């Protein structure tokens, strides 16, 4: 069965705020909410330009202005929200998760989770309004659509970082560590596990995320992933310089990290 379950008090709290339209938020360290908002207040422009094929080149003023306008629009429309559960791993081939039909096949995910005791499974989405804006732009300006698509891609990855940071904090609260994230389609983990992955976190009911016949998610700006949790896993949040200020400084999860706010790190 899944490791995390809401307590009776958590369930009552969730019910009590539902009518007011607020989002249930669990303690960021000690527990993981089954569904929650993960607000993102900025877009990493360097990532947007990379998605646009700029590399290390300097964009001209016209493109910079388009990106800024698209980012402002995307931040208004996006509603980053994630469904998340933690499962105990059964170290078989393929890897299975207790209480879930999800099977993780392939040597790459086997290596990725080799020292993990548990797996955090999540789906995060920006919501359908982003897709509608992309559809609108496709009928008016191919360039504007391209720029907005790059902005939205950077934004959903940023939201996935926020979810990952929550998992890292949870792992630390259990005296364990967390890996980075691994998604269907990475390495030899096939996309056809998407249906069971989404079902394992109830993504259709909680988020409205569905799949096309080719196992692509709708809304399109959605990310599904697995993270390993254990005492001896390779951390996905630093460069090996555990507990150093330098490691935190370069970590892409730092803006969302609850541990940093308390003067701690994910490595101890």
Protein architecture, described:
- One of its GO terms (molecular function) is methionine synthase activity.
- InterPro entries: VitB12-dep_Met_synth_activ_dom, VitB12-dep_Met_synth_activ_sf.
- Residues 119-228 form the AdoMet activation domain.
- This is AdoMet activation domain-containing protein.
- It holds the Pfam family Met_synt_B12.
- The protein is α+β, with helices and mostly antiparallel strands.
- It has one domain (20-237): NADH Oxidase (3-Layer(aba) Sandwich).
- The chain is 38% helix and 17% strand.
- It contains 9 helices and 9 strands.
- It has helices at residues 8-18, 45-51, 61-77, 107-112, 128-138, 142-173, 194-200, 203-207, 245-250, and strands spanning 35-37, 81-90, 95-97, 103-104, 118-125, 177-182, 210-211, 217-218, 222-230.
- The strands form 2 sheets. Strands 1, 2, 3, 4, 5, 6 and 9 form a 7-stranded antiparallel β-sheet that branches.
- A hairpin with a 5-residue loop joins β7 and β8.
- It is globular.
- The two termini are 28 Å apart.
CATH topology: NADH Oxidase
How much helix is in the residues? 25-40%
Q: Could you name the ranges where pLDDT drops below 50 across 5 or more consecutive residues?
A: 1-29, 238-246
- SS content category: alpha+beta
Our estimate of the beta-strand percent is 15-25%
Q: What string gives the helices and strands in order? A: HEHHEEEHEHHEHHEEEH
The Cα radius of gyration reads 19 Å
* N-to-C span: 28 Å
CATH architecture heading = 3-Layer(aba) Sandwich
Sheet with most strands: 7 strands, antiparallel
